[in-house]
Amino acid sequence: MDKFIAIVGTNSDNSTNRKLLQYMQKHYANQAEIELMEIKGLPMFNKPADKQVPAAVTDMAAKIEAADGVIISTPEYDHSAPAVLMNALEWLSFHIHPFVDKPVMIIGASYGSLGTSRAQAHLRQILDSPELRARIMPSSEFLLGHSLQAFDETGNLVDEQKTAKLDGLFADFETFVEITKRLKNAHAATAQEVRDLDWDNL
Amino acid sequence: MLKLVGIAGSVADQSYNRMLLKFIATHFSDLIDLEILDIDDVPMFNQSDDQTDGDAVQFLNRKITQADGVIIATPEHNHTITASLKSVIEWLSFKIHPLSGKPLMIVGASYYDQGSSRAQLNLRQILESPGVDAIVMPGNEFLLGDVKTAFDDHNNLKDDRTVGFLKETIGKFTQFVKVINSMNDKADEGWKKEDLESHGTVDTTIKGLDMHADDWVEQAAEKTHAAEGSDYVKLDRGVLTVDQLNWFLNSMPMELTYADDNNQFLYYNHTMDVKDMLAGRTPGSAGNPMADCHPKAAIPHVQQVVHMLRTGKTDLFKLPVPGMGPDKYIMHYYQAMHDDQGGYRGINEFVLDLMPIVKYYLEHTGQVLAKDPNAKADAVSGASSHAAAEKAKPDDVSGASADTEKPAEKPATDEVSGASASADVETKPAAPKDVDSVSGASAKD
Ligand SMILES: Cc1cc2nc3c(=O)[nH]c(=O)nc-3n(C[C@H](O)[C@H](O)[C@H](O)COP(=O)(O)O)c2cc1C
Ligand SMILES: Cc1cc2nc3c(=O)[nH]c(=O)nc-3n(C[C@H](O)[C@H](O)[C@H](O)COP(=O)(O)O)c2cc1C
């Protein structure tokens, strides 16, 4: 069974994005083992000269590295991903590179009707940058709008159409993970390239 | 000169973007007055732990609100802006929106030859989202690539063409700021809501009294069992009796007036008879709503000034009020007062004659006043040259004096800018008399 890390893209206590991931964890328990990962409490990324990464970040990196894939559920703040998620990704690309070639599924929930479309595009751009180089599942989007009304008391998605769409995308993601495992020819070279890429020596 | 604030999107000890802002601030100080704001103490944005009222966010809020425009210098991390900068923007788009309508310019430096191009594009999109709503200057992209080789040992940009382009960009931005702000001034009608009749109440308002009564002070004291005479009052920082407090305030070398955030005139230091005061006050007017102290025609101007102070557009509104002859230079200062949380709590108006201070200085440093042939019309009132200042007429705003004393001698000079011949001067070192012109003051004293 695939093991996925599900990153909650916020530090908010009552997050509908966390709810969405908790729903998936329960709903797909027969298909995959999903472990939620919180990003709250990391220090503000300050590009430390000694290149030291906090222990919490190395723990996270190890889990990501060991996982078959990563699901990120992002809120949308000011038409983009939240600072706290950007911060985690800065740490997770600072002299460590757990995301290289890692299959990633991006989803998101927002209060309004658009369902984080812009934040997801932003996150895609970030994960595609030279030090992250994740394998983002292409041509797929799960946008959960009106997220405050999207769940019932037991934490299930109310809208059947949305549920069906998520089921389909999740199955696709599992396939994508399998395919990506076969796209390993350039992995060693890419990993080396990323390790060599040192902003300090540009 | 335009007052701008600059934010470098980095909390690292060393940042080329901060260096770039410092270069702009020093190198173009003839074009703009740029203050660089620190974001190191701003916490990570968290929707469920609102720290909008904390010092770090309020500091930025205040500085940005008061500024004519903003420059952001952005690094690029992972093809986007830094989390530290994004977090600042999130705080400034959550419960408060100081960037709304603010003219803003983006610059950026990066190690790579792309020079933060992606981060800048991204930042533009973020700043234009409805919660932020800044007015970002279009075009004129200033990208400083390969930044590690861009500065010399003195932190100056090496390449003259780059400096030239930067100067051109800054020049365009100053034009942009003026255009946007003149649009904003027309749009901002908020001042009309300033209620100078004090119909509302604030938490300190003494309720149930006639604010217009001549004995309002006595009534209010009785109602609140106010401390008086030898009663002690604990202050920040000290303890005084009410008597001591009065002696202290009444010996201040200026006339002090307290108007609260409900626009009610609560206090003045009663040291002189109304006819001897620079801005006349009578014992009966304490407690009055501010409207009582001003002629009707002056009300809109007073409203504008109060609104500027309440909204933080400025913390200090300065108004020269000529008309008492060449031997006096009367200034009315309207200083916004704030509580510990930075909330607006009213106006401290202080009125004084600057002439004795100027004369003392000249005498003790061996200098004389001379006319500045290059002086611009607003040289004197420069610091307060906000839109409302241009509209406000001096004795309108200081109207408390208008209905009492000295309305007779209306000066013919431009009242607002105070640019009368006698004022339009600058001190120039003259031949020292018997004292060294610089150290003279201390040598004599
Ligand atoms: C500073 C701030 C900015 C926001 N900007 C947006 C936005 O641009 N678009 C949007 O759909 N919701 C925006 N929101 C509202 C919600 O927080 C957002 O819909 C979010 O995705 C909800 O996720 P959560 O339930 O996991 O916290 C913003 C909220 C905050 C606090
Ligand atoms: C985690 C991380 C990611 C970075 N990503 C980029 C990038 O995508 N593009 C780039 O030009 N520089 C990148 N850099 C290098 C510099 O930090 C960047 O050029 C920055 O703009 C320099 O400005 P500063 O000195 O003000 O921090 C990255 C650095 C770090 C530590």
Automatic annotation (TrEMBL), chain A:
Domain NADPH-dependent FMN reductase-like, chain residue ranges per copy: 3-147
Cellular component, GO, one term: cytosol
Signal sequence annotation: none
GO molecular function: FMN binding; oxidoreductase activity
The organism of origin for this protein: Lactiplantibacillus fabifermentans DSM 21115
InterPro entries with a match to the protein in the record: Flavoprotein-like_sf, FMN_Rdtase-like_dom, NAD(P)H-dep_reductase
Name of the featured protein: Oxidoreductase
Phylogenetic lineage: Bacteria, Bacillati, Bacillota, Bacilli, Lactobacillales
TrEMBL record, chain B:
Start and end residues of each stretch annotated as Disordered: 380-445
Start-end of Basic and acidic residues biased regions: 403-413, 425-436
Taxonomy, superkingdom: Bacteria
Gene Ontology CC annotations of this record: cytosol
Domain NADPH-dependent FMN reductase-like: 3-145
SUPFAM superfamilies: Flavoproteins
One of the Pfam families matching this protein, by short name: FMN_red
Listed GO MF terms: FMN binding; oxidoreductase activity
InterPro entries membership: Flavoprotein-like_sf (IPR029039), FMN_Rdtase-like_dom (IPR005025), NAD(P)H-dep_reductase (IPR050712)
Identification of the protein by name: Oxidoreductase
